[in-house]
Structures are given as C-alpha cells and as structure tokens.
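> tool_call: predict_assembly(chains=two)
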Amino acid sequence: MKNPITGLNKIFDNRIRLGVMSVLMVNEEISFNDLKQLLEVTDGNLATHLVTLEENGFIKVHKGFIGRKTNTTYSITRTGEKAFTDHVAALENMIKGIR
Amino acid sequence: MDAHIQPSGSLQDIKDIRRIMERSSRFLSLSGLSGVAAGVCAIAGAVVGNSMLKSYYGTYDSAGYFSGDDFSKLKLRLLGVALAVFVIAFVSSYYFTWRKAKKQGVPMWDHTSRRLAWNMMLPLFTGAAFILGMLRYDVWMFVAPASLIFYGLALVNASKYTLSDIRYLGYFEILLGILNMFFIGYGLWFWAIGFGVLHIIYGVVMWYKYEK
C-alpha cells in the first residue's frame, strides 16, 4: 500500500506557512499588510516564514511603492501551487484512510 | 516521518485551509439586516413616489390639463425621492454590515471589501450613466426596468466576492427587469417589488441562515 504521508510537505507543517499558501491559492496577489491582518500574526514572524517560502521557490515577491511607502506584495509560483495541491491531496488521503 | 502528523491534525489543517481561503477571497460580513433595511427604504420611497404621481394626476382631473411646468417639477421631485432613497438605503445597510464586521472582529475595509465594492459599482455606475443618458432624451419608461436589470447584473457580479447566495437575488432582479419591459407603465410596482419586497425576503433568509 502506498504510504499516504509521502505527499505531505514538511514546509507546510507550520500553520503560518500553510495559511500564507492558502491565501495565495485564491488571491492572485496580496500585500504584506493584508496577509498580516488575515493570519493575525506579528510582522517579524510573518516575514521569517515568507522568506522560507520564497527560498523554496513557492512564492514570488514584488516590491513596489504607494507614494513613498513601500508596498510589498506576494504571489504563488507554479512550484508552490503544485506543492500545495499535493500536500492537500495527501491530507485528504490520510482522512479517508482512517474512515 | 513526523510523529505529530495525525489524521485528526490533518482534518484540522483542511478545515483551516478552507476557512482561510474563504475568508481571504470573499467579504463575508454582509448582513441580512442590510437587505431588510434597503427593502424598507425602497418601499417607503415607492409609497411617496406613488402619492406624488396620484396628486399630480389629481390636478389633471380638476384642471383638465397639465401645464408643462407641473410636469418638470414632478420629474425633479421624483428624482429627488429616488436619490434620497438611495442615500438612506446605502447608509442604513452600511450600518448593519459594519456592525456585523465589528462583531466578527473583521475589518470593514480590507482587500475583500475593496474588491466587492469595485465589482458591484462597475455595473451599477454603468447603469446609472445609461439611465441618465435616457433621461436626457426624456425617455422615462425604461427607468424602472433598466435599474432592475443593471442592479441584478451588479449583484450577480458581486456574488463572486461575497456570500454567494446573493446571486439568486440578482437573478430575480434581472428577471423582474425583463418582465417589466412587457408591462411598461407599472414601473413603480416592479420597482417596489424588486428593490423592496425581494430585498426584505433575501435579508430575512440570509439573517436566518448566517446570523441567527
């Protein structure tokens, strides 16, 4: 029997990273502040996890400006989308497995 | 293999993912009471408009003719009533939604409500411009059907960015608008049903479903 856990991605063990990916799956692009508000996390905490996701090639960062203020937005990459879909499929398989 | 990954944990993960996706892509604080408030305003407006028309035709009966002056005054007053209804309905429905958002601890103005507002306003302003364009040529008979149709289209468009049930309200408004095209002259009735009765029914249903 295929091990259902193989599809699970270690990077998504973290709730904040999982949350960021969930948001980016349904939003083409989202700003740092909107993410912070949605996930109810602190600046530093969110920033660290965003770096991890970026280093893994799961998200893209766009640095822009609104007037003089920086406006950083994020979007999901193809790799990120694939990794996330696989992860969700693995989670669903595990749930089916116990029923 | 991670020891902490348990089936129960994965169920929770799936639930969280769904919740976050839902909340980050749709404005979910739209209150049913907003619909009821808008409906009540619309009916009140229709009653006032109706009495204006009645008293206008009453003067015709007694005097036997219209003076052009009376008619332009009537038109101006009807437009005034429509504008007042729009403003009061907007403010009162804004209030109930603001209250619900506050209760849920969700910001009233975030990227979901911005997107909702834009997608709702686009067909609405197009409709308003279209109707004002008709009025420039003194075409009054299509005001009610056009406002129902454009409003319905605005709701169907907006339903992708808020509680999706609102699309059914949109379908009914469009249907009513089209039907009104075949019963020109009963515009005020269709208007009262579309903006009044349907709003109240929709609002009550939504309130029962999500807020009770």
